[in-house]
Amino acid sequence: MRPFLLLASREDDAAADSEVAAFRRCGGLPADGLHRIRMEAGPLPTLDLDDYSGVFVGGSPFTSSDPEAEKSDVQVRVEKEILGLLDEIVDRDFPYLGACYGVGTLGVQQGAVVDTTYGEPVSAVPVTLSADGLADPLLAGMPPVFHAYVGHKEACTRLPDSAVLLASSPSCPVQMFRVRTNLYATQFHPELDVRGLVERIELYQGNGYFPLGEADSVIAEVRRTAVTHPSRIMRNFVERYART
Prior knowledge:
Number of helices: 7
Order of helices and strands: EHEEHEHEEHEEEEEHHH
Strand content: 25-35%
CATH architecture: 3-Layer(aba) Sandwich
Strand order of the largest sheet: 2-1-3-4-11-10-9-6-7
InterPro entries: ChyE-like (IPR044992), Class_I_gatase-like (IPR029062), GATASE (IPR017926)
Mean pLDDT: 93
Number of strands: 11
Protein name: GMP synthase (Glutamine-hydrolysing)
CATH topology: Rossmann fold
Largest sheet: 9 strands, mixed
CATH class: Alpha Beta
Number of domains: 1
């Protein structure tokens, strides 16, 4: 099988390693089935998409909607490089699944309005599939309503005409969308099980995703809700697009 490519941008080594482990675990991928590039560590190397089965984009400490003058040089470079690669990915309709930061990348590339209107604290929220979501092959086997983990400062306020809304939640109208046939973005984290989320909560204390000093109570709260279905999206993506 050709590996899947994970474009990551977490500067903290522990967070970066936890993320790649979560993608492998929830996607059912062996170690050599996922090739990670840490975009924050240096310029994006020349890539041939034909070497891969598909592309994942993980979460990020970057906020796409921040004023340009407030973005670091690293963020500006990463955004420029990923948007450049997305031009090719979209043009080819190459399999793509962006989780959380995927909305801020594919959404921006397509002309969506992405801002802080619908940010959500770290929590498990009920996600409802639209009629298009119920019919989408990537969501095969998913119930009409399921719980998923979220934690983000920005979200999509208005989808572009090119996008199809697949899922929403009471506190965030755009939880998942599709562009063309094979390009997907989720605001929730399909790659996170409770183990992965707890690791992330412990690593990102003080980063504004929940009140400082409340990590233990946030962990206790997310443990109360069973979140088991979103990882099926990861498995469906891998099974649908894996190429030899």
